[in-house]
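// run 5 | inverse folding | seed 20
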């Protein structure tokens, strides 16, 4: 496939490792004599170039991506509300409607003579990438999410950094929990997949781990806490995923600015526990702290591998695919296949079995 110019976009929530992908793509493309540009804030730089001082499309060169692999965030900016196929437009009367403005994307790629797109993001971005590919634009997807819930890859970059931070936070809470005989509930991100809560909970020696894949019975949690109290272990640590829910119940949501987001399950569990356990109960919500900061070495390497593999895919003539980790290699998965289902924690996986063997309460 003849390629002269490629574009990079970062969409959805930020994650440690995004800048590593941008650096790898830029260096690998430049090595092949290709021109590389970045689109500001998802697709907004292409759709609304007039809103950006630099025109929304920026040249990426080895000099401009120097020293960014170890930094968090994305030098291109990102958004989770820039779907060109369902773009929110505010009318003159203040009403809001969604419109399909994807034709602007096609026109923009033609005007800038861009031959292919490397789209870096989570399931939402990969779904949009699928639709973009149907417009005739050559697309390579790069999986990014701290939630690790994208199918077709063993791991997504950003996940290891989030787990490392959450593990450290849980470890730090052991000392204050034991000093005050408290139950500390640590709520982590992950949406409807429990990967972060499970891995950080195991690594941090949490006593209870509650994940969306296993609806919990609060009486089992109470029994675990009381058993520890009787054994003179008068504190407990609970690692809980934001999408966890009780048996027969629903996930917890918080509404901000008319938008509902997962969150608040730690407070719900705390309110249920306080009347029935003798310990003080406190909650800690790690939230966006899990997305920030410098990526771990594992995430830096994975982001660099994914970025280089995306360029190789274009060179090999592979399009409309997502790169995915399949140790010890990176393979190519059709975009459509990569977005068909969410990757959740298998109930028979080794980590679940390990948690049960260690006596960790999973709420069932």
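// decoded
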């Amino acid at each position: 496939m003849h390629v002269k110019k490629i574009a990079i976009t970062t969409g959805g929530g930020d994650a440690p490792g995004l800048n590593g992908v941008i650096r790898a793509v830029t260096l690998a493309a430049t090595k092949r004599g290709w021109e590389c540009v970045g689109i500001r804030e998802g697709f907004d730089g292409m759709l609304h170039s007039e809103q950006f001082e630099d025109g929304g499309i920026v040249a990426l060169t080895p000099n401009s991506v120097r020293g960014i692999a170890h930094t968090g965030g994305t030098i291109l900016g990102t958004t989770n509300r820039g779907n060109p196929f369902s773009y929110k437009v505010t009318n003159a009367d203040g009403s809001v409607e969604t419109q399909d403005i994807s034709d602007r994307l096609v026109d923009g790629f033609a005007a800038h003579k861009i031959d292919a797109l490397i789209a870096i993001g989570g399931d939402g971005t990969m779904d949009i990438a699928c639709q973009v590919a149907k417009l005739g634009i050559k697309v390579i997807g790069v999986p990014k999410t701290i939630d690790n819930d994208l199918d077709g890859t063993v791991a997504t970059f950003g996940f290891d950094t989030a787990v490392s931070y959450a593990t450290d936070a849980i470890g730090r809470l052991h000392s204050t929990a034991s000093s005050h005989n408290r139950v500390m509930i640590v709520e982590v991100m992950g949406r409807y997949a429990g990967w972060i809560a499970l891995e950080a909970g195991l690594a941090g020696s949490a006593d209870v781990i509650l994940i969306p894949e296993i609806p919990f019975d609060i009486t089992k949690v109470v029994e675990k806490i009381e058993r520890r109290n009787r054994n003179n272990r008068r504190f407990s640590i609970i690692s809980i995923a934001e999408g966890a829910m009780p048996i027969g119940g629903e996930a917890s949501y918080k509404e901000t600015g008319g938008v509902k987001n997962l969150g608040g399950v730690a407070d719900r569990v705390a309110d249920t526990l306080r009347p029935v356990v003798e310990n003080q109960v406190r909650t800690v919500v790690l939230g966006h702290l899990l997305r920030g900061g410098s990526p771990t070495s594992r995430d830096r390497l994975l982001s660099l591998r994914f970025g280089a593999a995306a360029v190789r895919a274009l060179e090999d003539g592979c399009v409309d695919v997502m790169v995915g980790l399949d140790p010890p290699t990176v393979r190519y998965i059709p975009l459509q296949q990569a977005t068909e289902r969410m990757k959740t924690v298998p109930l028979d996986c080794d980590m679940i079995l390990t948690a049960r063997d260690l006596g960790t309460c999973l709420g069932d």
